[in-house]
Amino acid sequence: MILRTQVLFILFLLGVCNSDAQEFHADMTTEVETDFKRRTNWLNLLRLSLSVKLAPNLHLDASTLSLWQTRESGVSDDYQTFSNIFADNMLIAPAVLGLCWEKEGSKLFVGVQKADDVFINYHASGLFTNSSSATYPTMSMNSSIPVHPASAFGIYYAYSSKGWTAKAAVYNGKAGNKFTGRDNSFRICPKSDGVLSLCTIDYCTNNNVYMLGGYFYRARTAVLGYVEQSVSPSTSLVVEASVSPSCHAECKSYVAGGLTQSIKKTELGLITNYVRLADGKEWTIEGTAKVLFMENLYVQPAVDLIVTDGKTNVVGLLRAGYSL
Which of 101-127 are b and which e, b meaning 16 or more Cβ less than 10 Å from the residue's Cβ? Predict the structure, then answer.
């Protein structure tokens, strides 16, 4: 049943690709990970995305993920997961499938979605490879929020005006990465799964970004903050912070700060973060460089120094991405 559903979904994507009013993208990422000792991993991620115009202000969005790697246990024993694309092997998983209506400053989406595609997806924080960058462990560890590789059914609305953007969404309280079964992305079970509410308010001006937001899920809450401040035409300061006052929260607080620097076709980044958990704590430093070749090909090495409950590890990766 699962394989049949996956095949039908692929045929659906291929069929609508013949439409003139459509946009199709393929993003391929390959990554070699190592702990500089005995463990290595080779990871490959493919994302297929399609948008089909149905009416002047209405379009259908669809996107799938496929992932294969040689070592499903990974190469690090950290709490946060040092690679933001690391996940279990999957033949094909739904990332987005729904209807999107846009008019002037408003955008409304109904369907299956990954929250990290539309929330807190800022340029500077997106440079870093640590999974906590732009996803906040106070959310991902305390709830089943739909972030990579999981998605969930929900309603998302955003309104933008004069540099301000307000975003709000409600999702089924259990995210998944399957087409069928209990771990599927299309579940609508608020009684058993609960409902996840997420909202943010952004203000963007002169390449600066300021965000304040929060989420609520089954008596668990968190307050989120983000600052991306230009200190020169090519240098930006990045600050992320979040706290969860809920007594049963697995992750209590998170704070990160770093710098990004653009030099021609290369982006350099250095960031450090600290996360306090109910049963431990972790501190990391990441250094990375993203080199752009042409407009659709990049290579990015990164090294993380990770201190988990007093134990120090060094892990690294070499990532390459290609888009068409």
Answer: eeeeeebbbebbbbbbbbbbebebbbb
Q: Identify whether 149 is preceded by a cis peptide bond (ω within 30 of 0).
A: yes
With a cut of 70, say whether residue 313 has pLDDT above it. Answer: yes
Q: Are 186 and 95 in contact (CB under 8 A)?
A: no
State pLDDT tens for residues 236-264.
999 999 999 988 899 999 999 999 999 99
Neighbours of 56 (CB within 10 A): 8
DSSP, collapsed to helix, strand or coil, labels residue 126 as helix
Rounded distance between C-alpha atoms, residue 149 and residue 156, angstroms:
19
How far apart, in whole angstroms, are the C-alpha atoms of residue 318 and residue 29? 11
Instruction: Decide the pairing of beta strands 220-232 and 152-161.
Output: unpaired
The DSSP secondary-structure symbol of 244 reads -
Q: Within 13 Å and on the Cβ side, how many CA atoms surround 273?
A: 32
Cα(40)–Cα(74) distance, integer angstroms: 8
At residue 163, what is the residue type?
G
Residues paired with residue 184 on neighbouring β-strands, in sequence order: 178
Q: What's the chain's length in residues?
A: 324
Verdict on whether the full-model pTM lies above 0.85: yes
Residue 6 to residue 13: CA distance in whole angstroms: 11
Beta strands of 173-280 (E only): which ranges? 195-205, 208-217, 220-232, 235-243, 251-263, 266-277
Do 176 and 206 contact (CB within 8 A), yes or no? no
The pairing of strands 152-161 and 106-113 is antiparallel
Query: Which helix (H) or strand (E) is 20 found in, with range?
Result: none
The mean predicted confidence, pLDDT, of the chain is 92
307 is written with which tokens?
């201190």
Displacement of CA 256 from its chain's centroid (Å): 17
Question: Whole-angstrom Cα distance, residue 9 to residue 105?
Answer: 32
